[in-house]
Write a structure and sequence with these properties.
- This protein is an alpha/beta fold.
- The protein is built from 7 helices and 11 strands.
- A 6-stranded mixed β-sheet has the order 6-9-8-7-10-11, sandwiched between helices. A 5-stranded mixed β-sheet has the order 3-2-1-4-5, with helices on both faces.
- Helix 1 packs across helix 2.
- The longest helix is centred in the C-terminal third of the chain and has 28 residues.
- The two termini are 22 Å apart.
């Protein structure tokens, strides 16, 4: 079985694959520091719950934007499962050419999204990931990673408003009854939630204008994807676990290449 771990700034998403089937997935907060031993105790409990032992894990992939957590999960794989995980980066053979001024600065999660998105839907394609940041990844007709857009995420926007303006309260991330708020809370909710919808629809239009594309396919992923997709006109499909699927595909590509070399 394959254990894939996508590490973000606020949480890690873990998945166990049996061949191409995602057996189970789980989320772990990365807000507080933990030791590899502590993480293993929590991970072991989850694996036991899905009837998977450490001996069943024969491969691993880490996609991480948090170096300290990359090190912790790398140690966990090697110490507890005897597996040397594949660490996804711009230097990994993914089958996607990265056309970017500084390829090494492209986040591993964005590379995984591009791989899975293009494999499933072809190009041109835009993948919007609702995480700590809201990212747009643009893939060409030929499967080239062209670059993208990084904006403040929904949770970050809410926290930042509360941080910089003492009188503005924290609010629940839900759509208010109307765009025009009639309370401070609903006004903030409208700015964050409907602002995100306007960002998505507006940026997709601008990408099309810049590239000369018509009706580019747009895929949404991430924890809040389904929530925003209900309101955004330009989102065609929601794939909540697209990043995990990209990690599986990259690992499979590596295994096939190794088999060919034998």
């Amino acid at each position: 079985m394959l254990l894939v771990i996508d590490v973000g700034n606020t949480e890690a998403v873990l998945g166990v694959y049996q061949d191409r089937e995602l057996r189970s997935h789980w989320r772990l907060s990365t807000k507080q520091h933990r030791t590899a031993d502590e993480i293993w105790l929590v991970l072991k409990s989850w694996l036991d719950g899905i009837s998977v032992s450490e001996a069943d894990i024969t491969g691993g992939v880490i996609s991480s934007v948090v170096p300290i957590w990359t090190s912790l999960f790398n140690t966990l794989f090697k110490h507890y499962m005897g597996v040397s995980p594949l660490l996804v980066s711009s230097e990994t053979d993914t089958g996607i050419e990265i056309i970017y001024d500084s390829p090494r600065s492209v986040g591993a999660d964005r590379i995984c999204n591009a791989v899975a998105g293009f494999a499933q839907y072809g190009g041109p394609l835009v993948v919007v990931d609702f995480g700590t940041a809201t990212t747009f990844d643009v893939i060409s007709e030929r499967g080239e990673y062209l670059g993208g857009i990084i904006a403040l995420g929904l949770i970050g926007a809410s926290r930042e408003l509360n941080r910089v303006a003492a009188k503005l309260p924290k609010v629940e991330l839900i759509f208010p009854p109307a765009v025009i708020g009639t309370t401070t809370e609903s006004s903030i909710q409208s700015g964050i939630m409907w602002g995100a919808v306007a960002l998505i629809d507006g940026m997709i239009h601008r990408i099309e204008m810049e590239r000369g594309w018509d009706n580019v396919r747009t895929i949404a992923t991430g924890g809040l994807a389904e929530f925003i997709a209900e309101k955004a006109v330009r989102i065609d499909k929601v794939e909540p676990l697209l990043t995990l699927e990209g990690m599986r595909m990259i690992y499979q590509r590596k295994c096939l290449k190794m088999d060919e070399e034998v």
